[in-house]
Structures are given as C-alpha cells and as structure tokens.
Amino acid sequence: MVSYSQNMDDEYEKFIRRMNPPRVVIDNESCKNATVIQVDSANKHGILLEVVQVLTDLNLMISKAYICSDGGWFMDVFNVTDKDGNKITDEASLDYIQKSLGPDSCFASSMRRSVGVMSGMDHTAIELIGSDRPGLLSEVSAVLTHLKCNVVNAEVWTHNTRAAAVMQVTDEETGGAIADPERLAMVKRLLCNVLKGTNKSREAKTVVSHGVTHTERRLHQMMFADRDYEGMGESAMEEKERPNVNVTNWHDKDYSVVTIRCKDRPKLLFDIVCTLTDMQYVVFHGNVDAEGPEAYLEYCMRHVDGSPVKSDAERERVIQCLEAAIERRVSEGLKLELCTADRVGLLSDVTRIFRENSLTVSRAEVTTKDGKAVNTFYVRDTSGYPVDPKIIDSIRRTIGQTILQVKGCPEELNQVPHESPTRFLFSGLFKSRSFCNFGLVRSYS
Question: Is the Cβ–Cβ distance between 88 and 113 less than 8 Å?
C-alpha cells in the first residue's frame, strides 16, 4: 500500500516539475565531431542516472560530459556520437531523446525511485545470482528448456567468481508470461539448485517476476548487493589494464573528489553512475573526457546525508566498488555471434556444444526480435589457456559457418573450410539422430 507521505512526495514532485519543466537542447552545429545534448531540469537524487541511461539505451557513445547539480537545478552537457563515431541525425533517435528527457517525459515518480523498472505482462523475468563455474549457463538453459520455457532475452555477467543473469522467458505453449504459481515455484527451486552447485559457502538466489526489467541496471544492483567487489585487490585483471581510481577530500568545499583513469569502452559512464547511485552518493559536479583510447572522469560528490567520505575504510570501499563497476562489463574471451531463427531450446543446445568443447561463457547477450535470435557469447577455455582455433573451427562446422560468426578475432580463426550454413543443429530436427550423437538430447529428473 502506498503511504500518505509517499503520495505527498509524488504530488510535490509533480508540482515542481510543472513549475520547472525540463529543457533539452540538441545541437548538431557547435561541435564538428559530436552531437551536443544539454539537459536542464529541477534537481533530484538519481536524475543523472536517468539521463545517462536514456543515452546509453540508444547505444550512444559519450565522449565528453559536464555535470553540474549544485542547489536545486541540474545542468548537464553531453557530447555524443553513434557507435561509428558519427553525429546523431536520425529523427527517431532525436525525438526519443526529447520525449524521454524533455517536458513531456513519461518518467513516473515511482520509476524515479527505482530507476529502470517498467511493467509488462508479455514474459516472465528471472533473476539469478550464484557462484560462477564452467558450464553454468548450459545447465541453467537446459533446465529452462526441460520446463518448456523459451529464453527470448537474457544478459549474463560473470565477475570475481560470481555470476548474475537476468532472463526473460515465455511459456512454450502460450508464448506469453508463465502464470501457474506451482510451475513458477518449480522454476525457482530447480534453478536455485543449479546455482548452488557444490558451493555451500556462498548464497545462490533466484527471483521470478512478471514484467520488464532494465537488464543492465538490475545486473549492477544484483552484483553490488552480492558484494562482488570484495577481494578486488586480488583481481586477475592485468595491472596495466586495471582502472586507476582515487578518492580524496576537498575540505574547503566539503566534497569528496573521485578521479578515474581507465581504458574507454561503451557504457562506461552508465556503469560508474549506477554504482555511485547504489552507494547513495550524489554527484554535484563532474567532468568526463573519453575522446581518446583512455577515459578520464572526475566527480565532486557527497553522500545523500550531505557528508563527504568520512574514513579510510569508506574510501577503500568506494574504490573497490568503482573498480568492480568498470570491470563487470569488460568482456574477457573470444566473441562469438550467433544469428538464426529462434526456437525453444536454442540457447541450451548452443551452450551445451560450448561446454562439450571445454569452453566456458564469461558473458552473454541474448535477444529475440521478429522470430530471429541474435546471441553474443564471450567464451574462454576452461583450463585458462587461449582458445584453440581448431575447437572454434569444429564448433562452427557443427553449428553452421554463417550462423555462428567469430568477431574481433585473430585471422587464423576465420580460416576454416566453407561449409553449408544450414547444418543439422538448426534444421528443426531437434530429436534427430545427429542430435543424439552429439548428446544434445538430455532428460532432467
């Protein structure tokens, strides 16, 4: 039940918004190599994340940003391009930015308090977190297939021995969300058993709900709550690739100043702002420069209670959490992209082939649109050695050369004999002899 005070807060927020409607200015003239987006609005906690999330959802690259939110007003300027480095000229994208951030913004007050959560009934959302191990995604997807659940969208992250996933599944028979409470309870129970594995020292968790979740936002929240940042000093990332994070106090202004130097990559600003928001810090001033291969970010911030960082322990925790936020999305391994007609069991079959060839998935993105599945996997050899090109050749011959593509890899991995793009795996003969020979049919009790 919504409390009286919450209703009052909502009404006050609406009143402030009507008196001071947000203003968005999109300028394609003043900067020769980027589109400049200026956002002015009444200030509130979480607004920076809302704005950055809108830009990130459009896959825009933020090369520069200037942040100012002192007092009751929020003013931000972003220099953005598309993924190819071009200005944003697409009318649909420009209109989306205006409607999402301008005076006609549809951000509900409840959504502001829990950034990234929207309602919907066309699928069931499953959130998973547990200890990472080789073959985990294969086992999870096999259980879902056995329970006649089709994975239509999913994202899987692994970091610091932990694995988190947000999966959107539909009922094989109805094509919609799973409504039967007993079946949902079984899904939770079986998946939780898979996640626990043999590790009893760390908790595994499965949450099932109806609706649409902002996947990347939830993954950050889940991993932060799971404390994946603990032990970051022992990270396996090479020292030269580790982000350089420093936190000092600016006593004259009563701010804590966070500076970050790291390799630039897509969605870097979003990942950092997510974690600062989750840690209940407010950015009052900020500067982002990511025009080269290295990104430099500087923030003047305070905790929501108005205080800067108070102790060495708090300072160390901020550093560890920001390092984790930057590293979670760093994609270790060989990038494989699969594109084919969607069907129930597709994810289970593909990840099982990886598993049988001693490959483990370190990160995965699964999307389905108009009956077509486009899945991206980052795979590593389970032994820790570089992936053997011969294994990739064999997997591609099994699945189909044009169905499974190797992206951003050494040339030798692409030098495989030409094969038919419609191998048995995707011919629709799910229970054919070929499937049995490769062990793709398996029953679960």
Answer: no
Q: Quote the CA–CA distance of 348 and 143 in Å, as a whole number.
A: 8
Are residues 251 and 276 in contact, defined by beta-carbon separation less than 8 angstroms?
no
Site of tokens 């982002």: 288
- Secondary structure letter of residue 436 according to DSSP: H
Residues 99, 94: Cα–Cα separation, whole Å: 9
Strand, helix or coil for residue 407? strand
Using DSSP's 3-state secondary structure scheme, residue 170 falls into: strand
Residue 374 and residue 44: Cα distance in Å, rounded? 38
Burial degree of 418 (CB within 10 A; 0-12, 13-18, 19+): exposed
Kindly give the confidence (pLDDT) of every residue in the chain, 445 residues in length, as a single tens digit, with 9 standing for 90 and above: 445 555 555 555 555 555 567 899 999 999 999 999 999 988 888 899 999 999 999 999 999 999 998 777 889 999 999 999 999 999 999 999 999 998 776 543 333 333 333 334 688 999 999 999 999 999 999 999 999 999 999 999 999 999 999 999 999 999 899 988 999 999 999 999 999 876 666 778 898 876 567 899 999 999 999 999 997 655 555 555 789 999 999 988 899 999 999 999 999 999 999 999 999 999 999 999 998 899 999 999 999 999 999 999 999 999 999 999 999 998 778 999 999 999 999 999 999 999 999 999 999 999 999 999 999 999 999 988 889 999 999 999 999 989 999 987 554 344 444 444 333 333 333 333 333 332 333 333 3
Three-class SS string for 103-143?
Answer: CCCCCCHHHHHCCCEECCCCCEEEEEEEECCCCHHHHHHHH
* Nearest 10 degrees: Cα torsion 183, 184, 189, 190: 70
Residue 126 contacts residue 197 (beta carbons within 8 Å) = no
Q: Report whether 33 contacts 61 (CB < 8 A).
A: no
Cβ atoms of residues 301 and 283 within 8 Å: yes
